[in-house]
Sequence to fold (336 residues):
Amino acid sequence: MMSEREYLKWCSLIILVVQNASTILLLRYVRTAPGDLFFSTTAIVCQEIFKMIASVMLLYFETFSFNELKNTIYQQIINNRMDSIKTGIPAFLFTIQTNLVYLAISNLDAAVFQVTFQIKILTTAVFMVLLLNKNLRILQWIALLLLCSGISIIQIQNVKSSGNEDNTHTNAIFGLFCVIMACVLSGLAGVYFEKILKNSKVSIWVRNIQLGLFGTLFASMTAYLSDFDKIQDKGFFFGYTAWVWLNIFIQSSGGLLVAVVIKYADNILKGYATSISIIVSCVASVYLFNTAINFVFVIGTFLVVASVVMYSYTPPSSSLPLINSKQSVAQNNETK
Fold:
């Protein structure tokens, strides 16, 4: 009979797959569905507010004490202003990234976006080496090479297939640009946020409340600068439907959900969940959005899926050598 730990582990896998796949599919649907199109900038404001409220609730669940919750927020957020300001940088980067994701998914098929968005693995790895001095195994560098190869194959095919129509061709290139920039910002913000977490004893939920506060501020500024006239004319919630609200909920709870379920899973399982969600998104896109998937796309997707599994895999022993860019440079200089 399956143990409780095993049961929670497989539940985590299912939750991660559903969350990863539904996030992209639902986002693509609400951005291309017929009818009035909502303002993405206002949706991002709502996402940040929802994220902040969820973080406050999760912080409360740690002690189930309102007094403890009030004291924690006052001491670690309000009273410790300089420490809170540190989260302003990743919050700003995450806000820009989310806006770029909305632009990208509006110009790319869900399947193409889901696969291409895995570039964030590469950008995160690069920033981890540069900013955190992390070591990467040879297997992980090979995985990153496969990742680049798979995404390149898919994007070349995507641009070629859209070359017959100038407008579609332009959209594909613009969507690719938005994805790449979003991945760069995602990697930088994620690594910087990890550095903040490791250099302090503040709870991750407190950090997420700080991110939500600054995120709401920056998202509101973006909405004001980009769509103020439209919002004033049509209203803040123009074009909102039940599907839009569901999208906002999933987008805002995604990162928090992963943080909760990963407690019962591990990095390998998270890699498998990402890989399965890519396949699910591609198959679902065929039926939901009439996405044309050919043999070249399948090959590219296979390389990306394989790279995700390889990058997440941790060998049982430390037999595989590590590669560290800074250490390698220093060793090479010493031999000269």
